[in-house]
Amino acid sequence: MVCSLSSDYDCLDFEGIYSNPPKDAMLHSSLSSKVSENPKHGRKIARVLVIYTGGTIGMKNDNENGYQVVPNYFAKALKKLPMLYDEEYVNNGIKEIETEAFGKDLPYSKYPELVMPVSKMGVRVFYYIKEHNPILDSSNMSMEHWQLIARDVKENYDHFDSFVILHGTDTMSYTASALSFMFENLDKTVVLTGSQIPIFEQRNDGRSNFIGALVMAGHFIIPEVTVFFNNKLLRGNRSQKVSASDLDAFATPNLPPLAKLGTDIEVTWEAIFRKTTMMPFCLHEEMSENVGLLRLFPGINAQIVKAFLSAPMQGIVIESFGAGNVPSNRPDLIKEFQNAAARGVLILNITQCFKGSVSDAYAAGKVLFDIGVVPGFDLTPEAALTKLAYVLGKSDLTHEGRRKLLASNLRGEMSLPQTAERQYSLRDGDFVQSVAKALRVGSQKEMNSVRRALLPLLLTCAAKGGELETIKQLIEQGANLNEPSDYDGKTCLHVACAEGHLKIVECLLKQGASIYVRDRRGRTPLFDAIRNKRLMIVDLLLSVGARSAHDDIEVARELCVAATENDVDRLRLWHRSHVDMNSTDLDGRTPLHVAVLKQNIDVIRFLIYEVCVDITKKDIFGYSPLESAKELKCNQVIDMLMRQPITNHLLKLDSLMLKANGRVFINNAMNCVGTAPNNNMNNNNSNSNNNSNVVNLNNLINCKMNCGLE
Q1: Catalytic site positions
Q2: Strands 315-320 vs 291-295: parallel, antiparallel or unpaired
């Protein structure tokens, strides 16, 4: 009997090997496919880590004690809300992502997993709730808790697409501002949200806020720390709590919302503050606690100011009158500020007004600039204080270096007068101008629509042709680098990576192009670079933090395609990119399975002796690579599979087992070591030590038995 197993790659027909597959094998294979592809966003699933720190949103109403926080209650209670938990999908047994396959060490198995229904954009959001212990009221938050939240994001950064932080509303703007500075080179979405009424009340704002935060985190790459409240996405370090009771409790007085949720989701992409460096994401934890806010009032006592400025104070934020004014007829007050600045105390000046900016247009404000006070322009008090703490935490900077950093716009937290947003006109770009004239475009709104339609297409064409100067001009004209330009959903970075244009890739990354954008098949720029064997671009993308998802079915398929084609170079690039080389396709086959079935000796050598893949893993038909090789009666492959490399993990495990028995038999174990066959592979990038030692598994087992371990 011949069982034909079809795949997206070469059809593999092997007589006798799969003559008796399990009854449910084909059913299992058909049920493993993911949700339908989405040509616009390219995402099929999204993994979001929800960090629950506390606040009103998750409180339970106890009739005797009122609203209170109950540990381990929030995740369980969410399963009663159908808009936040798709019970039908969970109960039908179909899995779009395999959590168990990646071990207990990954975070997916540590936290409760909940699944939202598929959105109208074709995306299913999986979210995992990490609950802090203890859960805090936000008024009890301190810098230590900011650091705990930041570490949670850092430790899970490579495993999740984005992050939602549930937080009490009272100090949410402080936390959002602090995190925006602590997260350096951020290139994923981080959303803080909460509520004025608990989510489990019949009438509440928590439900819409939480759903909105998950939608924004699961569907869009907005590389900022943001606050979502009342259907608006706000920049975190511009936000302020403006009401203690209204459901529209947050605002950004000097900046419009980044996105609005109505019947449609409108994102103002031009306003997104993207990173302009190729450095990977990192966390800066050091924050100075010796900072404070000093709000001026008429007749303030100079001795009070002097005491406030005394040691251990390292930096203060002055909330001055109007456009940054202080009493110019108070030399005693000015002297205290001057003395503090001379001692090295950093002083930042912002306005007390809800809207507006400080300036030196008035003599009463210019006096502060003259004594070395740094203008904070339109910084909020929350952003000013946390920025000051962040800058003072830079212990490697000089005093002057800190002043310069404090005066810079680091995360979009303030508007500098000399960098006012450019207004586009019909003079921007000859091609866009010509199209606009042909369409008889007259208004600015129509012109922006033409630009959004044309610039991504022009970017992609320039990226394919290697036209660096054209790309720079298009960027100056306001092109969105992360906007897909064709049916395949590829961005200009996808195309540049596939074509191997290194200089263009560097330029796009420096201008904020995202390494996490996926095309309609779920492929990232790193995927395209590896597929086309662009070694230098792969190394560049890895250096800026690009990674492949642990459960990416497209990557698993590509690994099997490379194994089918005996393409060791491509497999080596995937391995270089930290991909799990034991990943399986829909039939449960690893690349080693495919290589054995095709009898591709070069790939088998690479996977066994360099990668040390799992040779015991079975496909859905119950066959391991070794069992398949025995059915094929390929003695060379059988001999290779019977010899397993000694890994550090194996040696450590054996050492612990032997020591636990009260005796050390490392020498005996090492006597089981053999030598790998000479593979004569041309491998300039691998470590030659990987091929130097292998161990015969049967001998090792016998060695353990002789040592009394089994």
Answers
A1: 56
A2: parallel
